[in-house]
Specification:
The complex is a heterodimer. Chain A is mainly beta. Helix content of chain A is about 10%, strand content about 35%. Chain B has one domain: 4-Layer Sandwich (Metallo-beta-lactamase, Chain A). In chain B, helix 6 runs antiparallel to helix 7. The chains are: A mainly beta, B alpha/beta. The complex binds zinc ion. Zinc ion (ZN) binds next to loops of chain B.
């Protein structure tokens, strides 16, 4: 029900209140989705210097097999001087999936998210100079991903594994993989309040931030990220820190070590 | 509640007394039975994924002559398919279908059940429960994939639990093997008179196995059980009749390769999207529904495999 209302509101703003969302810089949306202007104004803050650009690449399956776990790989390594990358869905009760601040990492990230219906997916890349470059792809879906209760609530042990981290570094290829166990409840399923990780970052032992993420409700249950660094530059280990909206701290260490 | 495509099509069906003839004509299943033994027929499905062109007729169906009519093993993806089966059964035997068996709870194997609601519909107990729990979700997805082919299809779970062991179904002697791994419960049936093993989706041949409900170690164990039966011939869930033991061997090889590939990818730090683009070895690339089925399997299996393979970070 909440989702239906949210969608109705979203659609109204997207079409009915057209003038309200007339952007400063009018773009020709390659996806032709009807929601682009709204997100350009509301989510990106109506920047003047913005364009669609093929160097922002989104790779994903054409159809979401599991609407609760849709993989997406965003690659903006063709863009220099990247400050942050916003990932969002044109059509979803909560469009904004995450914002990635690559810091010392390459502007490239693998993630999984919950999809609610077939939608254009976007990655909007902002440089330190305030320029915006946007890439898109379309993912078809059966739907229901955002409004279904998390799997974790069906089991009894979710509280025990809350904040449990799996992952490691691959120094030679510059890869880091991190999975944090968390229900990531969207608040859209009946009777289950919002319960999500809001911040997650990788830092060196001396506290230098290597990469930073802001997470929103559509990130999948047990968020899983691939982060990419210059090959050969990763230290032996990186700290994982973060917190959820209930004040739970997330702490762990990624090493280059053996499995298990 | 948001109206689903199923509800919309249902409303359409109810509201229009006479849909356009040409639209109807497009959605007709052409089922061809093939005799594979005394009083035993097989209908072979396309070795493809669900498409508008095949109407979801991708599954193998078996008909076996019982004492009072034909025993139907699996009922296809839709009401219309079930109706086509009922017509075909009456052509093979005037008495029509006397009993139905569902090998497992995937939609292409039991969504024709509603046409046979007046005869016993047998399945393993866990298959009954799974069909009740997951049937509506499958149905929404099938309407999305197949549209008008699904018109009027309602989920009718199997009505009677079948135990393992030697059984008489409408007077015909079968050995029921209660296995699992492709889903929570997979029934294989050995037809004693002809030595024919109906493997359900535990065995695929020249069509990529599907894994949305799979437990790979359990499935591999079930393949050993199928092999130990030593049947004269095997009807796989998808793919041609097998008299050479190819289906079990190929399914085993593919599942083993799949498990190894996903584990190695997790240990190498690959992302799901990267793995999905992994080229398939020649012996599996030519299977029906590839590489789509491999990509689906990555989505089904990788998150859990990765969690097992990556070390703990706290
Ligand atoms: Zn199946």
């Amino acid at each position: 029900m909440i989702r239906v209302l949210a969608m109705a509101v979203g659609l109204c703003l997207g079409s009915g209140a057209w003038a309200l969302d007339d952007p400063v810089t009018r773009l020709d949306d390659p996806m032709g989705s009807g929601m682009w202007d709204y997100h350009q104004v509301r989510l990106l803050g109506d920047p003047a210097d913005i364009r669609f650009d093929d160097r922002v690449i989104l790779r994903a399956p054409a159809t979401a097999e599991d609407s609760l776990n849709v993989p997406l790989l965003v690659d903006a390594t063709g863009i220099d001087n990247v400050r942050r990358i916003l990932v969002f869905a044109d059509y979803g009760p909560i469009p904004h999936v995450l914002t990635y601040y690559p810091e010392q990492a390459q502007p490239r990230i693998g993630l999984r998210f919950k999809i609610d219906q077939g939608t254009a997916m976007r990655a909007a890349v902002e440089t330190h100079a305030g320029q915006w470059f946007v890439g898109s792809t379309y993912i078809d879906a059966a739907g229901g991903g955002c409004t279904a209760p998390a799997h974790a609530y069906a089991s009894d042990d979710w509280e025990e594994k809350l904040g449990e981290i799996h992952g490691r570094l691959w120094a030679a290829s510059g890869r880091a993989r991190v999975i944090v166990d968390h229900p990531m409840d969207t608040g859209l399923a009946d009777g289950i309040p919002v319960f999500i990780i809001e911040e997650l970052q990788l830092e060196t032992e001396d506290g230098t931030v290597m990469a930073r993420l802001e997470l929103f409700e559509p990130v999948n249950e047990d968020p899983a990220f691939s982060l990419y660094f210059e090959p050969g530059t990763l230290p032996a280990s990186l700290r994982v820190t973060g917190r959820d909206n209930n004040g739970n701290r997330i702490r762990g260490v990624l090493g280059g070590g053996e499995t298990h | 509640m948001r109206p689903t495509r199923r509800h919309l099509l249902g409303a359409l069906a109810a509201g229009l007394a006479a849909p356009k003839a040409f639209a109807q004509a497009r959605h007709v299943y052409d089922l061809q039975p093939r005799s594979i033994g005394d009083g035993l027929w097989m209908i072979e499905g396309a070795t493809e994924h669900f498409t508008d062109a095949n109407g979801g007729a991708i599954v193998n169906i078996v008909l076996a002559r019982g004492q009072t009519g034909l025993i139907l093993i699996d009922t296809g993806p839709s009401r219309r398919y079930g109706e086509a089966l009922a017509t075909l059964a009456r052509r093979l035997d005037l008495r029509g279908v006397s009993a139905v068996v569902n090998t497992h709870h995937h939609p292409d194997h039991f969504f024709g059940n509603q046409v046979f609601a007046d005869v016993p519909i047998l399945a393993l107990g866990e298959t009954q429960a799974a069909a009740r729990a997951e049937g509506d979700g499958f149905s929404d997805n099938m309407y999305r994939l197949l549209g008008d082919w699904m018109r009027g299809t309602e989920v009718v779970p199997p009505t009677r639990a079948l135990d393992g062991g030697s059984q008489l179904i409408d007077g015909r002697r079968v050995e029921a093997l209660p296995l699992g791994g492709h889903t929570v419960a997979d029934l294989a049936l050995l037809d004693t008179a002809t030595g024919t093993l109906v493997g359900g989706d535990l065995a695929f041949l020249d069509r990529a196995p599907t894994t949305p409900s799979a437990d790979l170690p359990c499935w591999l164990g079930a393949l050993d059980a199928l092999e130990s039966v030593g049947a004269a011939q095997l009807v796989p869930g998808h793919g041609p009749l097998d008299r050479a033991g190819r289906a079990v061997a190929q399914t085993r090889a593919y599942l083993g390769w799949l498990d190894t590939t996903l584990r190695e990818a997790a240990r190498a730090g690959l992302d799901m999207v990267e793995i999905m683009q992994h080229p398939l070895p020649p012996e599996f690339a030519g299977m029906g529904a590839q590489p789509q089925e491999f990509q689906r399997s990555v989505a089904h299996l990788f998150p859990e495999i990765e969690r097992m393979e990556l070390p703990r970070g706290n």
